[in-house]
Amino acid sequence: MSTFYNLAKCLISIAYFLFIFNATLRILIKRRSLSFFIYWLLIIYILPIFSISIWLFFNKLYLEKKHKKIANKAWSISNKFLYELKSYKHFFQIKNSEVATAIFQLCKNRHGFSGIKSNSLELLTNTKKTIKLLIRDIYLARKNIEMVFYIWKPGGLADDVAIALIQSAKRGIHCRLMLDSAGSISFFRSPWVKIMREAGIEVVEALKINLLRFFLKRIDIRQHRKIVLIDNYITYTGSMNLVDPFLFKQYLGLGQWIDLMTRIEGPITTTIGIIYAYDWEIETGNTILPPLPDKNILKNNFKNLKASIQVIASGPGLPENVIHKALLTAVYSAKYELIITTPYLVPSKDLLYAICKVAKRGVNVSIIIPLYHDSVLVKWASRAFFSKLLHSGVKIYQFTKGVLHSKSILVDQQLSLVGTVNLDMRSLWLNFEITIIIDDSIFGNQLANIQYQYISDSQLLDEKTWSMRAYWTRILEKIFYFLSPLL
Question: Is 294 one of the catalytic residues?
Fold first, then answer.
């Protein structure tokens, strides 16, 4: 018995030291900030038992060899498709506004082409009206409908969308639906999956969660995009999940969720379709590239629309840090006004520094966040950044009329970023996300009006009052700040 005990102890010790060595090596080879290295190394060496479970959960790469091979193939095919798209020269904007030049140059170096024009854009702020408009477009679809959402919660208006999708599939429309396994767990436990598949809809459970996956790969990487593509011509994207705003999480007593979506008609749908095709191939192994735009129809319908649009996407298998770099570029481009709306404010060190720096050089910087929050962890982690932001001259507005879930950045009322990205580590480094970048003063003014309405429905955080908060809250803020790289 003693021999067995000593042998077991020896094997456990060897396994532990191998884990420490492996984890340390993996941390050091990652291209991240110094604070990232320090946080992880402190956790591993100060909390050895806790660190094993944390590392297994947070730091195993999602894409195994099979998926990496598919990702490389999908990206290679997408690049060839984008090369063909570049022949449509009249779709591309030659010159951008001064404030947008840097970020569009970044995107051009990344994608190989300039911003795309000839698009009709519409901002949607009322979730009920957005869903009604989406249902109308689904019924009017002639060829195909593709959807991807983080959350589809059955009930109410979401069921109306499901019925419209089923009826469209039955009349011959090719429908594909991809939903995140964790976010849409209630959908995959509902009868809708079987009903949809029997109607001919291809339903895919993205990043499927199971017990084996928990031990073999990280499960916190999620499919966080929200996209609807109709007839390779109409696009919906933004912060809205497929839920009924009158039902979703009302048990929390926080009010309705406030979202921001864009509806776009035009050739930008093709580039967003490439992103959808990439995600679809990662999950299924099947290639479904969209057709190239119809030059004549688009040229005749939208020849006078000059708004320049680029699309950036992130996620495993895609180039790293692209959204983070775009956000930094947008922030530094501000000359007189920067407005940010985000439900989760846990910025990277570089992004925090950028926001504070532009505020210190006289830019009017406003950040709008929800006063009422569905995540206690993120709420307390966010508070750890308030003092530095306020001291730099940043105005922090806390939205009081529901849960502000909109994700947007507006620079000098000209450059707009709207999409699915939260200002937290998970969105910036891990999840499958999408953001559209729009260079247009008309769209910028529309977004500004929406953000000013958010501000009027918010309370301004006073720096002096904030500095007098209770001592115990400061301790909690520091604790959650320490965990912020894991959130």
Answer: no
111 is a catalytic site residue: no
Pair 74, 282: CB distance under 8 Å: yes
Do 400 and 476 share a domain, yes or no?
yes
pLDDT of res. 213: 52
Backbone φ, ψ for residue 123 (5° rounding):
-90, 135
Task: Assess if residue 105 is contained within a domain.
Answer: no
Query: Is 407 annotated as catalytic?
Result: yes
Whole-number Å distance between alpha carbons of 356 and 387:
11
Counted residue by residue, the chain has a size of 487
Contact, 129 vs 263, CB < 8 A? no
The one catalytic residue among 137, 180, 244, 412: 412
The reply to whether 249 belongs to the active site is no
Cα–Cα distance measured from residue 3 to residue 452, given in angstroms and rounded to the nearest whole number: 72
**From 111, 117, 224, 395, the catalytic residue:** 224
Tell whether 408 and 469 lie within a shared domain.
yes
Catalytic residue among 160, 231, 350, 374: 231
What pTM does this model have?
A: 0.86
In this structure, which amino acid lies at residue 149?
Answer: F
pLDDT digit string, tens, across residues 355-373: 999 999 999 999 999 998 8
Question: Percent of the chain beyond pLDDT 90?
Answer: 54
User: 153, 324, 395, 405: which one is catalytic?
Assistant: 405
Is-catalytic flag, 160?
no
**Nearest 5°: phi and psi at 291?**
-70, 155
14: domain range?
2-58
306 tagged catalytic: no
